[in-house]
Specification:
It contains five helices and ten strands. The chain is of the alpha/beta class. Strand 4 and strand 5 form a beta hairpin.
Length: 208
């Protein structure tokens, strides 16, 4: 399963191995859609990077913003952090941590058109959305409770859009969901990770 794809002329192409080259081909009429790992109350966004230079995606992100194409940042409100993106960037860093449960990461800021579920519904229909609760258990993790205000026909259109995706299954590569264990392939480039020196069942403090 591809992590990054290019949709061109109705054809989908896996660009995991040539992400940077694909970015170079983009022009002002093209649209790039990316996710984010953090958003703040000011509507700013950032993405986690754990490999030197951010790996292939990291090398291409700056290019996305430099190419002049339209950048859409699709991000759920569960990624809303209590502080600011600037504070988060200062706190993180691949080489800033002495110990981490998993690879240490930094953040890079993203500049584009941020679309959350609130904004998406307001684009689909002429409604006003107010977030009144977030989160839950037993499948409601990451859920958002919204109050819709608008004319009946517009509210109905928004509700139909919600029902169309309600219950959708998660996607992604199963291998990416497997928890790390010591001495895996990524250990060579992941910094400060406790799994590099300890067995999974004996995770202990370790200062490099």
């Amino acid at each position: 399963m591809a992590h990054s794809v290019l949709l061109e002329g109705g054809q989908i192409r896996n660009i995991d191995n040539d992400f940077s080259q694909a970015v170079v081909s983009l022009r002002r009429h093209d649209v790039a859609v990316i996710g984010a790992n953090a958003i703040d109350y000011a509507g700013r966004a950032a993405m986690l990077l754990g490999r030197p230079l951010g790996g292939s995606p990291g090398l291409g992100i700056a290019g996305l913003m430099a190419q002049g194409c339209r950048l859409v940042i699709a991000c759920g409100l569960e990624k809303l952090i209590p502080g600011t993106i600037d504070e988060a960037i200062k706190a993180g860093g691949i080489f800033s941590a002495d110990w981490s449960m998993g690879m240490a990461t930094g953040l890079t800021p993203l500049t584009g058109h941020l679309i959350t579920e609130k904004r998406a519904l307001e684009m689909i229909a002429a409604v006003h959305c107010t977030v009144i609760a977030c989160g839950g258990i037993a499948g409601a993790e990451g859920g958002t409770t919204l109050v819709l205000e608008g004319e009946k026909t517009e509210s109905s259109a928004a509700i139909e859009a919600i029902l169309a995706v309600k219950g959708a299954k998660t996607t992604g590569c199963p291998a990416s969901l497997v928890e790390c264990t010591s001495r895996q392939e990524g250990c060579a480039v992941h910094q400060s990770c406790a799994w590099r020196t300890c067995k999974g069942e004996m995770l202990t403090w370790h200062v490099k």
